Amino acid sequence: MVNSKILKDQHQYYRLLNTLFVVLPTxxxxxxxxVFIKEVPDGxxxxxxFKSWAFSLPVAYVCVLLFLPVAHKITGIILKED
Length: 82
Prior knowledge:
- By secondary structure, this protein is mainly alpha-helical.
- The chain is built from three helices and no strands.
- It has helices at residues 4-10, 14-38, 45-79.
- Helix 2 crosses helix 3 (45-79).
- It is elongated, with a radius of gyration of 17 Å.
- The protein starts with a helix and ends with a helix.
């Protein structure tokens, strides 16, 4: 198993890549579900999916980058970590 603390310290893009690997499957799942819930009747569901994903991916990525540090601070306060 990879020690994430060492990896974080050694690589400057760790946070961005880690966020990307969280955001990609999340937005993919949300986009698929939203397309099938809308039930695109004319068979253009692939186009609707990519349109939905193209919008949700940057929004989710920015939100995660903004909210993740706040979540870590709150978790640290709750768990009394320094």
